[in-house]
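QUALITY CONTROL LOG
STEP: pairwise intake check
CHECKER ROLE: data steward
CRITERIA: each record must contain a sequence immediately followed by its structure tokens, with no blank fields

ENTRY 1 OF 2
RESULT FIELD BELOW
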Amino acid sequence: MTVVAVMGILSAVAIPAFISYIQKAKTAEATSNVQKIYSGIVTYYASEHVKRGMAADTIVTRRLPNEYGTSDWCPLAPPTAKKYPAPDITFYNSVSTQGKIWKAVDFAIADHHYYHYRIEFEDWGGSDAFIGEAEGDLDGDTALSRFERTGFVGPNDIIVGSAGIYQLNPLD
């Protein structure tokens, strides 16, 4: 009887801790991928790009990949309490506007995933700015977890990024 009581107490403590641990592990996907998106945008900004012209090519530096516009959520709807079974083809379509954005920042998902992603470009008081975002619903209750990393072109043409990744309802 004592063994059963001890086992009951242990399971009452261990099961919620285990569930919390699993949810934290799932959020690592979003934080890692949002950081990859941010790093891809910074790398794109710092790289040289060639602009074709009639007389000669022009090398353009220091620009965001916002020439393609803001990306749609990719995949369009967030998964609900499950992983997406396959990567969204949008990441790999280098012909579409959406595919060009993802290719420019060198981001794609090659495996099943819990979140969907977007890059948004804005004008913040005359400075080009961007937001790398992830959303997902880990437990299927329609309340979304959200992760964002922002940045803008600051003085001296350098990217000024947020201190870290903003998290809203990370464990959903």
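ENTRY 2 OF 2
RESULT FIELD BELOW
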Amino acid sequence: MAGMFGTLAFALALVQPLGTLAQEPESPFVCNLRVLTAADRARKEDIARTLAAMITRVRELPDGFEFQFKSEPTTLPLVGEWTWTERLCCPFFDFEIRIDREGGPIAFRLTGRPGTKDFIRADFGKWLRESRN
């Protein structure tokens, strides 16, 4: 038994440094809209305005915010389309979509590494003001 744990500890020591070397550099907190066409940018803004009007609740999280939207047939496709373009221009975000059972709200979490919440506060003012806590 003791030999097995010694081997495991050695294996973990070898793997851990390799994992840290494989990390990619982090992108800056900058929204690079140049990766989108003019039509994509206009569509993204239209969707953002529509979604802002559909917000029913905003919850602050340790590393970002959760936005809850009305559960309507158009909500999920709009959240999905907006997320697709947002991930291209702001690759530092983590996105999570949750759909509650029984026709409950659609929740969208926008989170990330330290500093992400401050970026959201600065860039998503309309979504935060539309909150109906």
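INTAKE CHECK: passed for both entries
DESCRIPTIVE NOTE, ENTRY 2: The helical segments are 2-21, 38-54, 75-89, 116-123, 125-129.
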